[in-house]
User: Fold this.
Amino acid sequence: MSFLKKSPWVLHYAATSCNGCDIELLACLTPLYDVERLGIVNTGNPKHADIFLVTGSVNEESRKVVENLYAQMPDPKVVVAIGACALSGGIFRDAYNVYGGIDQVLPVDVYVPGCAARPEAIIDGVVQALGILEERAKERKRQRRMVRA
Amino acid sequence: MSAYTWWLAIGFLVLGPLVGALLAGIDRILTARMQSRKGPPLLQPVYDVLKLLEKDTLVVTHLQSLYLWGFLFFMLISGFILFLGSDLLLSLFALTVSGIFLCLAAYSTNSPYSNIGSARELMLTMAYEPMLIMVALGFFLVSGSFRVSDIVQGSPWQVLQLGGILIGFLFVLTIKLRKSPFDLSASHHGHQELVKGITTDLSGTDLALVEIGHWYENVILLGWLYLFFAPWGLAVALPISIVLFFAEVLVDNTHARLTWSSALRVSWWVTVLFGVTNLLVLPLIGHSS
Assistant:
């Protein structure tokens, strides 16, 4: 079993979000939901993170930051898009300045719908991401063995 | 050095990380309970480190791993000397060298966050080092020896004779354990002005080394705390030192972070007020040597 499942550290970035989903996301850390009981820690540092949680519809300014943060995360890693805007652009979809969805700039693994996404849905999304993370870890281990051989 | 102390020293090398991880796990649960949360499982720090070993390590410069191994190596030396019952001063110097290696690792990575973090860490070293030397000096004046094996068999009154030094030591323990209000070089919590301070640019195996080093460090500091009460015997001294050790968690959760200048000022004031005063009055309240 991979220990990634027992200790997923998340990185949170608001890519042109209205902060609705961000508040719900941070609510997961409060005593009511307390995700630390699952070993989840909110790191402010991409180099320590395993799961990238992105909210918002992404514009040109935040695209650079999102790509930079993603590139700095060490493998294995997963991306979770949170909220209607992160999924498809939401109500901002037709605005000229947004990309309309995180998957326009990053490979997204889990989509969490909602406007704003509820804390329960976000936790469920992270838990689903753990399964993908474990598969990635196995794949990464295989790759390392191949490089050594 | 008897066979017993050799076993103790080897026990530190082998079981040190496990004890340190349990201390860290209890710390996290206590913190969570104080914030009316459930908190992570007891072995969460172990899971964290085992996970970090599974992750890729992003190497900024190869020097960083070298320095981190130095950090861990001198930490082991420091604890080995302490638990062998050997020279307390030598253990202290090894602990300091180990701290300097951590600063070097942070400096070598060139990130502005870790640079400021290690500058602050050096500042904190300046803040706690005088007090730590005074602890060793106090033990010497009371028991007539720097050897840990002699201090352990010292007079049962040494806690009272060294009361001021104990208070000063508990104060700098907060700095050594990186607890609030002195967590300004590397906080346990990511969201702060320095991201993660000295460990910002360390990932994967390198970060795991830092964690394991900290586990050893916590056991060493608990050992130092134990020395004050050691003449009373294991059954009394160990519970007292563990309770005092976890009192730091309460301090951590009830204080806001200080700036480096006030941290330095406050800790030197405490050092002078409690440490130096204690050393000055020590001849008056009598010592065994």
